Amino acid sequence: MADRTPHTRETTQQLKEDLRHLSQTVEELVSATADDSRNNIKELRERAEKRLNETRARLEARGERAYHDARDTVTQQADACDRYVHDNPWTSIGIGAAVGVVVGMLIGRR
């Protein structure tokens, strides 16, 4: 898990920078519309659209990566649990029974 922390920081930093660039471009677009200079507006609008599309693509890619990482982690945890149950069947039965007793006692109190 410790090896993911730098990746998470890097991703967060990149996201902040992407949003900062996008924000700057939108601010430039807003200030350019005050001039009402058609060429300037068109150029800034194209840049804003380009940055928006780039940011959207990066966010989608990061979302896909996060989904795959989470799916892989859950799969690994499920496999580890499955191995533990197969390696220690009586311990697993004991743990399940103990949890069942506790849940039964809690339900019975109501």
Walkthrough of the structure:
- The protein is mainly alpha-helical and 110 residues long.
- The chain has one domain.
- Helix content is 94%, strand content 0%.
- It is built from three helices and no strands.
- Helix 2 (38-87) crosses helix 3.
- The longest helix is centred in the middle third of the chain and has 50 residues, at 38-87.
- Pfam families: DUF883, DUF883_C.
- It is a single-pass membrane protein.
- Its main location: membrane.
- The structural class is mainly alpha
Average pLDDT taken over every residue: 81
- Specify the biggest β-sheet: none
Counted up, domains total 1
C-alpha-based Rg, rounded: 26 Å
Shape: elongated
Give the percentage of residues in beta strands. under 5%
How many H/I helices?
3
Distance between the termini: 40 Å
Low-confidence stretches: none
N-to-C order of helices and strands: HHH
Report the helical percentage: over 70%
Number of strands: 0
Oligomer: single chain
Protein name: ElaB/YqjD/DUF883 family membrane-anchored ribosome-binding protein
Family: Belongs to the ElaB/YgaM/YqjD family.
Subcellular location: Cell inner membrane
Membrane topology: Single-pass membrane protein
